[in-house]
Amino acid sequence: MIRVTGTIALSDDEVEERFIRAPGPGGQNVNKVETAVQLRFDAAHSKALNPAILCRLKILAGRRMTADGVIVITAHRYRTREQNRKDALLRLLDLLRAAAKTPKKRRKTKPSQASVRRRLEAKRQRGVLKQGRGRVQNPD
Predict the structure, then answer these.
(1) Which of 50, 91, 98, 112 has the least C-beta neighbours within 10 A?
(2) Residue 110 has pLDDT above 90, yes or no
(3) pTM for the full model?
(4) Phi then psi for 93, rounded to 5 degrees?
(5) 68-77, 100-109, 131-140: which range is least confident on average?
């Protein structure tokens, strides 16, 4: 059982790991050892996520979520399998925790009367300044 938040927990069989060859440094080892981890989580069919969280998760995941609703995270930052597994799982948990937070509702506010007055006075002063830039008339 993977605990995401106090109310959300994923079962171990919902998260699938596949090991692939990692790009980057590693010398001769890079062509022989599969140290990178490709973690897959089927968010669309997970019973742990409600529709509101799933909707926010789609926005947060972006390209990492397929059209079928599967989140794919590839981790190849480290040279060992175990570190990459931990890294991929932590990235998935961070993504799920961010989606689980309900966004704060925006409160409409009005500008104060004093700020409106200051803005209008500044506009008037700017207008007077620009009026002074008009064509000069001959005093003939």
Answers:
(1) 112
(2) yes
(3) 0.68
(4) -65, -40
(5) 131-140
SS (H, E, C) the chain: CEECCCCCEECHHHEEEEEECCCCCCHHHHHCCCCEEEEEEECCCCCCCCHHHHHHHHHHHHHHECCCCEEEEEECCCCCHHHHHHHHHHHHHHHHHHHHCCCCCCCCCCCCHHHHHHHHHHHHHHHHHHHCCCCCCCCC
Pick the CATH number of 2-100 from 3.30.9.10, 3.30.160.20, 3.40.50.360, 1.10.10.60: 3.30.160.20
| One-letter amino acid of 43 | A
Domain regions of the chain by residue span: 2-100
Rounded to an integer, the average pLDDT of 94-121 is 92
Return the bridge partners of 72, or none.
Answer: 40
Residue type, 51: P
Q: State residue 122's pLDDT score.
A: 97
